[in-house]
Structure formats: structure tokens, C-alpha cells
Amino acid sequence: MSVRSLAAAAALTTGLMLTGCAGEDPDVTVGLITKQEDNPYWVTMRQVAEETAGEENVDLLTATGTSDVDVDSQVVALQEMTAQGADGILIAPTDSEALVPAIEDAREAGVTVIAVDTPTEPESAVDAVFATDNHEAGELVGEYAKAKAEEMGLEPRIAILDLAPGIASGEQRRAGFLAGFGIEEDDPQISGSQDTEGDRELGVVAMRDLLAQDPGINVIYAVNEPAALGAVVALEEVDRDQGDVILVTVDGGCEAIKDAVRPGDIDATAQQYPENMAREGVTALADHARGGPAPTGFLNTGIVLITGNPAPGVESRDVAFGVRNCWG
């Protein structure tokens, strides 16, 4: 069975979009609030949510912001969807703590809320979390990078391209990477760390700065593929032989796997499955609104390490598997 078929699991700028299927009038309204639409990850999540809403005879409200740190638009979206009578809302928080008061207001108004992709802090602020195990994702790429560095005989000089403060998914991935690599936050092997907001252009800038500080960086962890693709650009700018650099990341989108993992610019990516979050989230909220059980707890929507250059002792799948299961 493909990972895409695992049983797991727009824009706010001009208002909320409404999607429904033909036939009888739906009696359930579900909302989806993503972070932005420059990253195909979020586009895929919205598209699958729309498809699932049609199959489930559900009205779907969708909203998105301008970046992975756009909190204000998500607060407004929660308020507007609640006012429009949403039975349940899926939200990928742009700040795991800052969104909690607005989420609590929606729940007090009777809305069931599931966090997708990014947990809240505390996780109990929502009814359930449908997401990748982000610590596991970071740990997988950390183990891979460590094994590769040993295989290549490198003295690791590590650059970290982070997300942004206050976003639990990024913090969990970083912690997982460090654990997988077997180091602590203050380890001298870490040359530097910069935030990228998960953005490609900011990834270029961050990697330029880190290379200027330490041209000998030879291990790079990037929080997502847009940031990793930015790192590739910065390495090319200084004519760095990418065969001497280990670059690992998290996502599993088609562009990165076909254009960067396959040729070896990105050595490995932990592939996650936004379609599972969307599909299972819409279905769970629709079922609950129609009298089914309330969604609770954490649903792990899957993670698989994809590489064209396996590392000793680290379980992975090949690029062909990644292409068959990629999104975007």
C-alpha cells in the first residue's frame, strides 16, 4: 500500500472561499486555515481538503496567510469561520502559542478544532493533532547525516536553517535532528544557525551568511525543502562542490525530489504527507458533526526517509518511491 493511501489523515486576502458538492444541501461546514500558498505543501493540503469535502458533502471554508509566521490572518480566519457557523476547523498554526487564545474562543463557541502539521503549545488547546511526527522526521535526517559524515570521513561543521521561534513543528524537527546526529545544542560542531521562515529566498540569505562565517560548513540541516533549495543556490554561488556537503531536510515535495534529491543536491529528505492530514481531518470533523466520535489525541500521518544515496544502517526508500508518493 502506498503511503499516500494510509488511513491517517483560499486566500484570506479577499475573504473566505466556500466549496460544496452538487446535490443535496450539505449540513456540515468545515474550515481549513493554512499558512501560505507559495509552498506547494499547503496548496496540496487545500486541494485535497476540497476534494474530500466534495466527497463528504461538506461545505469547506478555506483561508491562508502570507507566510509561515502570519499570525494575524489566522486569528481573523478563526473568528470569521466561527461566525459563519463552522462545525469544525483544521488549522496549521503559524505560532503554536500565539494562536491559542483565538482557538480557545472558537472552541468555547462550539467549534471542534484539529491542528494539522503544527501542534499548539499546549497540545490540549485543540481537540486533536493530525500531523507528521516532526521529532521523528528530524531524527531520521539527523541519523542519515551522521552516518554519511562517518562514511565520508568528515569532521562535521554543521549549519542549521531553522523555521522561526514559536513554531512547534520547526522546534521539534531541530530537536530531532540534534538527537539523530547525537549532539546537544551547544555542541562545537554546530557552526551556526539562522531562521528562514521556511522560505526559499530567506534560505539563500541565511546560507550565504553562514558560509561567510564558516566557508568549511559540510553538513546542512534545513527545516523544509524551500529553505534547502535556497541553501543549494547559496552553495552554487560560491562554487562549492556539493559532493563534499551533506544536505538534509524535511518535506517530500515533487520539485525537490525530482530536481534536487534525484541529482544529489539534497542528499535526503524526510517525506511527509499533507494529503493525509487534509483527508483525515475533513472526514473526522464531518463524522463528528453528524454524531460520530469526537477527534482526540495525536494522529501520525506518516514519514519516510527518501534518498538516492543510502547511508549505512539508516532505513530509507529510493527516489522512485519518493516520486510515486510526492505532492505538489
UniProtKB/TrEMBL annotation:
Signal peptide residues on this chain, from the entry's feature table: 1-22
Principal subcellular localization: other
PROSITE patterns: PROKAR_LIPOPROTEIN
Location of the protein in the cell: Cell envelope
Pfam families named among the record's database cross-references: Peripla_BP_4 (PF13407)
Keywords linked to the UniProt accession: Signal
Residue intervals of the Periplasmic binding protein domain: 30-291
Source organism, top-level taxon: Bacteria
Family: Belongs to the bacterial solute-binding protein 2 family.
Protein name: Substrate-binding domain-containing protein
Organism ancestry: Bacteria, Bacillati, Actinomycetota, Actinomycetes, Micrococcales
